[in-house]
Amino acid sequence: LVSIGNICRSPIAEAVFRKLVTDAKLEHKWRTDSAAVSDWNVGRFPDSRALSCLRNHGIETAHKARQITKEDFQSFDHILCMDESNLRDLNRKSNQVKDCKAKIELLGTYDPQKQLIIEDPYYGNEKDFETVYEQCLRCCKAFLEKYH
């Protein structure tokens, strides 16, 4: 799960998906992680508003931001991102990777409500983080149903 900085949207999506997988007792079938297309926040914990939003839904995460690597394109089956800018960056990066096996697509592709883009809540408020959470929950549930 990829976003530009790996401190808001993608850690929320990662934590949501990990909880869905754990609740379904499928953790042995899935390796879940999140990363950034940029190196801006490498080593930082998620935004405090993202952590608060997750806690409000009973989800904890110890994630630290990292940048996507060449190995990610070779080892993951799916790389899901949040918006068109992420998608362009990932497709460009994947073209430089020999043996890229990951299917790269927007997480919003799986949204039953057809909201394709998960907007960055960084400059918003708690309500915007809640919107991201709800979108990620819908998309991750649909994605898991499709590939489980």
Automatic annotation (TrEMBL):
Its EC number is 3.1.3.2, 3.1.3.48. Gene3D superfamilies: 3.40.50.2300. One of its GO terms (molecular function) is acid phosphatase activity. Transmembrane segments: none annotated. Residues 2-146 form the Phosphotyrosine protein phosphatase I domain. Its main location: cytoplasm. The keyword Hydrolase applies. Keywords: Cytoplasm, Hydrolase, Protein phosphatase. The active site is at R9, D120 (proton donor). It is an enzyme of class 3 (hydrolase). GO terms for cellular component: cytoplasm. The keyword Hydrolase applies. Signal peptide: none annotated. InterPro entries: LMW_PTPase, Ptyr_pPase, Ptyr_pPase_sf, Tyr_Pase_low_mol_wt_mml, Tyr_phospatase_low_mol_wt. Pfam families: LMWPc. It is found in: Cytoplasm. It catalyses: O-phospho-L-tyrosyl-[protein] + H2O = L-tyrosyl-[protein] + phosphate; a phosphate monoester + H2O = an alcohol + phosphate. Belongs to the low molecular weight phosphotyrosine protein phosphatase family. PANTHER family: LOW MOLECULAR WEIGHT PHOSPHOTYROSINE PROTEIN PHOSPHATASE, LOW MOLECULAR WEIGHT PROTEIN TYROSINE PHOSPHATASE. Acts on tyrosine phosphorylated proteins, low-MW aryl phosphates and natural and synthetic acyl phosphates. This is Low molecular weight phosphotyrosine protein phosphatase. It comes from Thryothorus ludovicianus.
